[in-house]
Amino acid sequence: MKNKEILKTKINVLKAHEGDSIIIETYDIEKNKYIILIDGGPRQTFKTTLVKELDKYQRIDLLILTHIDNDHIAGLIQYLSSSHADKHSFGKLLINAPNLLKCNDNGTQISINEGIEFEKIINKKYPNLEIIGKITSEIELKLNLPEGIDIKILSPNQAALDELIKNWREIDFNKEENTQLSSTELKAKDFDKSFKKLAEKTTSEKKISRDFANASSIAFSIKTIDFHGLFLGDSHSSIVTESIKNKYKDNLPVKFDYVKISHHGSKHNTSNNFLDTIECNKFIISTNGGKGRAKHPDRQTLAKIVSHKNMQKEKVQFFFNYPLSKIEEKTGKLFKDEELKFFEYYEINEITT
Fold this sequence. Notes:
The structure is a single chain. The protein is an alpha/beta fold. Helix content is 23%, strand content 21%. It starts with 9 loop residues before the first strand and ends with a strand.
């Protein structure tokens, strides 16, 4: 008699340059495979990664566009407008885009209004796609997921979504910063400060009105038959913290198997208040080191995680989707040699939970 197959959730953190693109391959209670695609990275991710990685799937059950920043949406624009996407069927799309928010109650009809390029592609090629919009942490969405798969929306809140809609026409989706590579001789910002000092440092969060694209980012937890994960997009730490306190109030801190750190490890998006609400020792960082003036991850974020009291049961593990040496070409050297004993790190794309 054959041994029963053990089904394990897999997380594929694609090489999406400075952006995010993640495939979650999991199973429902009936052992049916369920595929989730989160974001598509910047434009160049289409040719370098998306075509190859998505070719193995006939169906994408759930497509989540966390927010409309170029390094999350542009690769999807390229992919969905190409013939490569024609071989897939798609289940649901979760998105906060103003011209796609005018769905009827069951979410099966989309607005004919023209908006950004992504919206035009959805209107033209996928008129029957089930679109779920107006996504906030304050509304109980009826996602109708298979039994054994549960998703809780933790960001944005209504204020962040309102700010996105208000500023929609002011967004320049084609804005690209010039890549400025640092020498490997350089050290990351705050390299000379100890992890202990950095962990105690308070960094102010950007105001929603000045950072409405990231503040509107969809962040969610997902629980399956074998896995509990937290995927934060580029969300604001304060919004996620408040949502976790509300949705998990009787089970704090919440234990997660993996956490995808917000905004590629930016110091503005991970606070000690947020870390107070979770318990985890495995953290995913999606970035090749950043672009232009935005270099990620930040030493302060890594120090806060490693030093936090909730992360002391086991040694913290960081999972980078690019080699650390490539990341440090842009950020400068991130770690002192003596700091490496406080955590472990892996350079890996496919993670089996």
